[in-house]
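A reminder before we start the practical. When you read a complex entry, don't treat the lines as separate problems. The point of joint prediction is that each chain is placed relative to the others, so the output describes one connected object in space. Small molecules and nucleic acid strands, if listed, are placed in the same frame. In the example below there are two entries. Take a minute to note the order of the lines before looking further.
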Amino acid sequence: MLFVLCVPSHAQTSFDQIRIFGYFQNSFSQQENENPQSTINSFSTDQFNLFFQTRLSNNWTSLINFEMINSFSGSNNWGAFNLEEAWVRYRRSAKFNLKLGLQIPIFNHLNEIKNKTPLLPYITRPFVYDASLSEIIAIDDFVPHQAFAQAYGFVPVGEFKLDYAVHVGNSPNISTNIEFLATDGSTLIFDKTTHKNLSGIDTTSTLSYGGRIGLRIGELKTGISTTYDRTNKYKYYFNIPDNDFGLLPRYRVGGDFLYDWKNFEVHYEFITVLLDDDNALFDFNKRFSYFTAGYHCTEKFYSYLSYWETEENFKPAGEIEYNARTLGTAYNYRERITFKMQVALVKFKSDGTIFQSPDFRISSLAASVHF
Amino acid sequence: MMPRFPCFFNDDSEKISTFSMKKVIYVFLFLAYFTPPLLSQVAVIAHRDVPVDQIKKSELLDFFIGDIKKWKDGTAVVIFDMKEKKDVKITFYKYLGKTSSRMKSIWMKNMLAGEGAPPKAVKTPRQMLLEVASTPGAIGFIDAKYVDKSVKVLKTIPIKK
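Here is the predicted structure of the whole assembly.
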């Protein structure tokens, strides 16, 4: 790893200049709540990403990606500013690429492009892929957000292309609060004395592993993704003793299916999250799926209908289900600007007291620009 | 005064010539109606030093969507696009099973994933020739009538109107 980090210092000045590019999306949304009836209007800068990329040599490339979401403002404590990616990649051939450093792991199709608003027709994205919903949905439970080493590529077999990816990263037990983590039991290797005031490090001895196997032929793309890690968040949420939930094994299984036929597109994905608690009293499993049918009315004009469904268990506290029926259009104006319109009907169902929300309709207009 | 038109026929042969002219016109119209229009072609052109003399459709697609980035000899593939959306461009991407907007979406996805920059888009066939001829590993497409010896033709695709 140290070797890899040394490579840029030599190559950067002698090979390629740094390319800077990015995109942002501004939107206006009106949310109409039922029971009790109320309306909220808001302009927002949903997303702003800035990339710095340089080709270090024939086979080496590096990229840094900064992301700001939800009208980021440090002075107002709005939104979030994140270092999303900082990696260097070695490309031997199409069959083998090795990416080292902070990166978004290859999981389902939408996970790769979830925050790339110029590529998406949606304004509000399918629940678990929308970073701007991270304040109300535990999206990190559904999709892996970070990896630190990943090998990927594809192998051509006749007309088919077999995609593969394997990645490793931190389990989600990242230190953000020293005192909070210091209360953990013997399974954590966190040392309060030596790591005092450090944050953003994994304080456990576990890692996250995952991968995807996919198939492409013509306009069909499909695949199965999986990850395995161990999380300690539920023991804190529910104040559960260490001997029951030291580090809860968590398995994610995802599937994606995309097919383009003439001007029609069909996208389907599912994610199942299994938290292996081995205890009949508790159930934290989760499930998500979405389906989109789209049509390219012209080369520039795209319309779609989409249905998203999520189920989260927090038993014994409760269970939440929510779904959205949405329709929208995207108009690609002058290549670099895309105008979008979306209406979504969101319905909640909860059988416990953990979370209550009225059903609502959200209508949005947005402009996504890349530069 | 009578206008002075050039005279092709002398007075004696005028009747016969008029009859012949009519026949020629009828034959021409007949041929024009039943003969398929002269087909123009898109030529897939590459730098003269690329290590192949012809290319398969699937290889061409792999180059243009960025799945394959090197020629067999290790030279980097540099693709060129046409700026204006005319028959040549439409035919080329249709041959690959894509539209030009779909290609742009693929290039943008690649760029935002750090997999490579979109291709340079040139304005004229002359510019395409110059760029492909002067860039090692370059590949592009052009109306076949503009091709000269500065580039290698790897494939031709008929333009169907």
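Discuss with your neighbour: Residues 284 and 313 of chain A are 5 Å apart (CA to CA). What might explain this?
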